Each structure stands twice: as structure tokens, then as C-alpha cells.
Amino acid sequence: MAAIQNAGFVDVDITWRGKPFTGAAGQAKADMFELEGFNIRGRKP
Amino acid sequence: MALDTNILRDEIQKVYTQVVCDPKQGYHFHTGPDYAADLLGYSRAELAELPDSVTAPFAGVGNPLSMGQPGPGRTVVDIGAGSGMDAFLAAKAVGASGHVIAVDMTDAMLERGRDNVALTGMRQVEFRNGLAEALPVDDGTVDLVISNGVINLCPDKAIVLREAFRVLKPGGRLQIGDIIVHKDIPAAAREKVEIWTA
Questions:
Q1: Of A11, A39, B47, B194, which has the most beta carbons under 10 Å away?
Q2: Strands (DSSP E) along B13-123, which ranges?
Q3: Taking Cα atoms as reference points, which of B134, B28, B144, B19 lies closest to residue B78?
Q4: Cβ contact, residue pair B171, A43, below 8 Å
Q5: Tens digit of each residue's pLDDT (9 = 90 or more) over A25-40
Q6: Are strands B99-104 and B125-129 parallel, antiparallel or unpaired?
């Protein structure tokens, strides 16, 4: 989120968090690294 | 030894060329429309309207257009569009008077994407060869920038985000689906290409 704000965007918010690797071959590695999917948005002022 | 960005890009291109050539062979990540509907909240009905050659290679990790649809006539940039699933969904929203610029660095994805433009007849989608770090798009010309599962593969995320900012018009929106790792990865491991692509 900070990286997006640092680029100049405002009204930055995360609208969804999830586990896109659930059931995939890479799930164990994703879990090991505590990987999380997200949707994030912002606006150029 | 520092991460070699060119080697990383080569490896990413190899993986995603394989995905577009054989999307159902099984990868460490999910692919395809059923995954998109089941885990990411895409509309199964909307995906069913797109050809398999658009949806089967989909390997995103979020759902950028779930945060808002572009209106008719708008201009959209999709960073790392792949075969174009999000780009074609955006194209439906902007209509024939709109423009979707689908940027990708992988030749096989660009070729598939252009074939998909011909297949769907959605001429408002234009595939351009380019990097997320140097978008082939003019300053201040875009209403919406989307990206799905791409920025995590770019070592310098700040440059990518500055590029998105540059191409947007004032008031333009950024909508990204991506992944983050919450566990610290040792600096030495971060310099290994296989950590980025596995």
C-alpha cells in the first residue's frame, strides 16, 4: 500500500484478500512464505 | 550476486510461453476460468462468453475489474496482459468506442492475444510489446490501469507504479490484483531467479 501511495496515488484501499494458491501444486510453498493474494486500488489526483 | 533482471525476464517468458502453449498441463499455480470463478470471484457467465484461447491461459491472482468497471469509450491499460482475459473483459465494458492497450513482454502471449482479437472481433483491444517498467503508452492518456499477478514479478515495483501513474489522466484509477509474501525472505534468496518464478 505504501509503495502505491509513494507513487502519488490517493484513496488507496485493499478490497479483497485471499489464497489464490489453495489446491495448487505450489500451495505448500505459498503457505511457507505466508503468501496472500489481494485486490488493491488507488486514484491519481 | 545481485538478481539479474534480464535472466529473470527470460525465465518468466519461458514459464508463460509454456502456459499459453499448454495451459492445462499443471503448474505450481492455477490457470483457467474455473479457478478464476471459484477462487477469485469472476463471473462464470461472463467468462463463458470468451473463447477458451482467452480464458484457459489465465494465471492471475486477483480480480482487478471487481473494483470497478471502465465506462463506455474509456481507455484502459493492462500491464502484463498475457492472453488477455482481463483485457477482453475490460473491452466489453468500454465497448467499440473504447480502447484497451494490453501490454506484455512475452512474444507467445502477444501472438495469442492478437489471435484472440481476430477471434473475438474486439478490435478495441490492442496488444503492444513492452515492459511494465517502461510502458509503451503516452503520458496522461489512460482512464484505468489494471494488472493481475504481474507486479510481484518485477524487482523494482516503484518504477512500475510510477509508470502507471505517468500514463493515467488526472482522476484515473489503478486497480491491481497481486500477491504479497508476509514472511521475510533472506536477502540471498531474493537474488535467486528460482525464488521469483517458483
A1: A39
A2: 75-79, 99-104
A3: B144
A4: yes
A5: 999 989 988 999 999 9
A6: parallel
